[in-house]
Design brief:
262 residues, alpha/beta, Rossmann fold, seven-stranded parallel beta sheet
Length: 262
């Protein structure tokens, strides 16, 4: 691997599993120092040990509820104390609650918005302020979604949070560009993650159908004929964190195997 991120320090929320873990691993492979944050302590500890074996001395971990601004401030300070700098922020933590809008409780609505949208705002604000103060430029990245660009059945809360994230990103991009900080979104399509497997299992149980059949039917709708591999998706995050995207800000990059055009 080339050292596209040599000497850089990144902070990744939702970093103990799925997309966040793949991004953290890719950043380490490209030479970065990485702090992963997650709300699930067992997953966080396991991810830390796994990544420490791959990149000794360049990984830190902190338990974090991204909807808690004071805790995020403390996590940012801890990351700076550990690595001495902060160059890249990835607001990736998120949850999914699938309900039709008329059946969606206010509690579930607020929970999704709090984690996905408010969490992205807090993370990007807190980490972005540290990057600005450092005075060397940097990159703020948010994980939106294919459903941040189009709605869908049972996605009212999730889509609203992800649409909102794109608006937040565009505003921050305009504000931080004169300060040398780029702000962009990645909009993943249907990625090969444990969260998606759990969804197929849940749907299969509800419908009395094998989860494998539901998954096969789902994949058949993707023009590339497969779910997205997480390492491929992580490459987009490396691009946005690296000098290769130095003239890119305010953008939403969709990585979906052609789902939107299929």
């Amino acid at each position: 691997m080339t050292g596209l991120l040599d000497g850089k320090a990144a902070f990744v929320t939702g970093g103990a599993q799925g997309i966040g873990l793949a991004v953290a691993r890719a950043y380490l492979q490209h030479g970065a120092m990485v702090t992963i944050a997650d709300v699930v302590p067992e997953a966080l500890e396991a991810a830390k040990h796994e990544l420490e074996r791959e990149a000794p001395g360049r990984i830190a971990a902190v338990r974090l509820d991204v909807a808690d601004e004071a805790a995020t401030e403390a996590a940012a300070d801890a990351a700076l104390a550990r690595f001495g700098r902060l160059d890249v922020s990835v607001a990736n933590a998120g949850i999914l609650v699938l309900r039709r809008a008329l059946d969606l409780s206010l509690a579930d609505w607020r929970r999704v918005i709090d984690v996905n949208l408010t969490g992205a705002f807090i993370t990007s604000k807190v980490m972005g302020s540290r990057i600005v103060a450092q005075g060397e430029g940097g990159s703020v990245i948010m994980t939106s979604s294919l459903f941040g660009m189009r709605g869908g059945v049972e996605n009212a809360a999730y889509s609203a949070s992800k649409f909102g994230m794109i608006g937040l990103m565009q505003c921050m991009a305009a504000e931080l560009a004169p300060l040398g900080v780029r702000v962009n979104c990645i909009c993943p399509g249907q990625m090969d993650t444990p969260m998606l497997d759990r969804l197929f299992e849940q749907r299969g149980a509800e419908q009395g159908r094998p989860a494998a059949d539901l998954k096969a039917a789902f994949v058949s709708r993707i023009p590339m004929g497969r779910l997205g591999p997480l390492p491929d998706l992580a490459d987009a995050y490396v691009y946005l964190a690296s000098p290769m995207s130095s003239y890119m800000t305010g953008q939403s990059i969709t990585v979906d195997g052609g789902w939107q055009v299929g």
